[in-house]
Write a structure and sequence with these properties.
Helix content is about 0%, strand content about 50%. By secondary structure, the chain is mostly beta strands. The strands form two sheets. Strands 2, 4, 5, 6, 9, 10 and 11 form a seven-stranded mixed β-sheet that branches. Strand 4 and strand 5 form a beta hairpin. The radius of gyration is 13 Å and the shape is globular. The termini are far apart.
Length: about 120
């Protein structure tokens, strides 16, 4: 049974930082591309950052230079360091795992709320 469990969300003032973690179990973590998505109220879920099994990284333009995605395959854990947070970063953040051969995530976490106050 695959589980992705996010942690680290919370309330922070604009300009502040938060660090998210996603603990994975039940899958061969190192073989999966991992990503962070977010969904704000009334908006569609969007990809924030992705890191491939080989380490290739992608960031959405809206977070480039502020967010850093990383993974520790030995700990089966995905991270997202978020700096210089803005109110528009407020959303539920989801961790997702995707096999290299497919285009959409196979597994999702339950999400963690990030709220940035102005």
């Amino acid at each position: 049974q695959v589980q992705l469990v996010e942690s680290g969300g919370g309330l922070v003032q604009a300009g502040g930082s938060l660090s998210l973690s996603c603990a994975a179990s039940g899958l061969t973590f190192g073989s999966y591309a991992m990503g962070w998505y977010r969904q704000a109220p009334g908006k569609q879920r969007e990809l924030v950052a992705r890191i491939g099994s080989g380490g290739t990284i992608y960031y959405a333009d809206s977070v480039k230079g502020r967010f850093t995605i990383s993974r520790d395959n030995a700990k089966n854990t995905l991270y997202l360091q978020m700096n210089t947070l803005k109110p528009e970063d407020t959303a539920v953040y989801y961790c997702a795992a995707r096999r290299p051969a497919v285009t959409k995530p196979d597994y999702w976490g339950q999400g963690t709320q990030v709220t940035v106050s102005s």
